[in-house]
């Protein structure tokens, strides 16, 4: 039987959602047509640094890599948690959900609706709180704040769906190159079980148009000049 190319997206992640929100056509080229893109040096560097963080936290590297040195104390503290057998930690974890928010596995190609990749999380029983960290390379960009908040919200929601006994989630973004943290330590974003229903509704509503989209119109924007699908780069887009 011939393979029939899908006409819409049936599953999502935060990066798919942000790609589609920025330009539906680029989401189609990337995730449905699967047009290969050249690896960017910044992306390759980012994944190398994520690997270094993972290896250090798992105790595979004795010395803190220089790329992580702006957060020396934090990495030491987290590595301490990872070495305790009694402490629940997640390093480079993957969570997957069906569209009723029940759990499934990442490669459930037929039923997986949402995939969440997590760089690091530690559960602290004293406050019944899960601290979630996403490592970032590059700079914090003020104009992306809405996207950052959405990412943090989704971590919080999926953590409480993954483990309903968690009472509180405190997610943050850690900028390894610049020493910034978002939100700042003095003003953390704290999510509790009371937020679950509202966040669930918000996300179901937000992604519905993306999952129904079959037209994927191009939406020219300020990222077109870097877009691998642009006419200037020989791609299929007219812009
Ligand atoms: S060039 Fe611009 S409009 Fe075209 S796919 Fe890329 S981001 Fe979208």
Tell me what you see in this structure.
- The mean pLDDT is 94.
- The protein has 6 helices and 7 strands, in the order ααααββββαβββα.
- The protein has helices at 14-22, 24-32, 41-57, 72-83, 145-162, 196-212, and strands spanning 89-97, 103-104, 114-124, 129-136, 168-175, 181-182, 191-192.
- The relative contact order is 0.16.
- Strands 1, 2, 3, 4, 5, 6 and 7 form a 7-stranded mixed beta sheet that branches.
- It has one domain (14-233): Lambda Exonuclease, Chain A, CATH 3.90.320.
- It is of the alpha+beta class and 239 residues long.
- It is globular and about 50 Å long.
- Iron/sulfur cluster binds at residues 23, 25-26, 218-221, 223-224, 227, 229-230, 237, 239.
- Iron/sulfur cluster is lined by residues 23, 25-26, 218-221, 223-224, 227, 229-230, 237, 239.
- What name is given to the CATH topology? Lambda Exonuclease, Chain A
Summing up helix and strand content along with how strands pair, one would put the structural category as alpha+beta
End-to-end separation = 36 Å
- Report the uncertain regions: none
Helix count equals 6
The proportion of residues forming helix, as a percent range, comes to 25-40%
Largest sheet: 7 strands, mixed
- In CATH, the architecture is Alpha-Beta Complex
Topology order in helix (H) and strand (E) letters: HHHHEEEEHEEEH
Instruction: List the bound ligands.
Output: iron/sulfur cluster
- Per DSSP E runs of 2 or more residues, the count of β-strands stands at 7
How big a fraction of the residues is strand?
15-25%
Mean pLDDT: 94
Integer-rounded radius of gyration = 19 Å
């Amino acid at each position: 039987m011939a393979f029939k190319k899908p006409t819409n997206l049936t599953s999502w992640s935060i990066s798919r959602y942000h790609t589609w929100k920025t330009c539906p056509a680029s989401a189609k080229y990337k995730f449905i047509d699967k047009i290969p893109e050249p690896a960017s040096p910044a992306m390759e560097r980012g994944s190398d640094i994520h690997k270094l963080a993972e290896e250090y936290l798992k105790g595979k590297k004795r010395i803190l890599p220089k790329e992580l040195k702006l957060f020396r104390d934090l990495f030491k503290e987290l590595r301490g948690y990872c070495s305790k057998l009694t402490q629940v930690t997640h390093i480079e974890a993957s969570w997957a959900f069906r569209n009723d928010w029940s759990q499934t596995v990442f490669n459930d190609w037929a039923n997986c609706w949402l995939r969440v990749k997590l760089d690091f999380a530690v559960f602290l029983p004293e406050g019944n709180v899960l601290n979630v960290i996403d490592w970032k390379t590059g700079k914090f960009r003020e104009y992306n704040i809405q996207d950052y908040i959405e990412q943090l919200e989704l971590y919080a929601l999926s953590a409480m769906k993954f483990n309903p006994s968690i009472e509180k989630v405190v997610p943050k973004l850690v900028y390894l190159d610049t020493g910034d943290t978002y939100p700042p330590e003095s003003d953390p974003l704290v999510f509790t079980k009371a937020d679950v229903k509202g966040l669930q509704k918000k996300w179901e509503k937000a992604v519905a148009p993306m999952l129904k989209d079959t037209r994927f119109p191009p939406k020219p924007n300020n990222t077109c000049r870097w877009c691998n699908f642009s006419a200037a780069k020989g791609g299929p887009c007219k812009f």
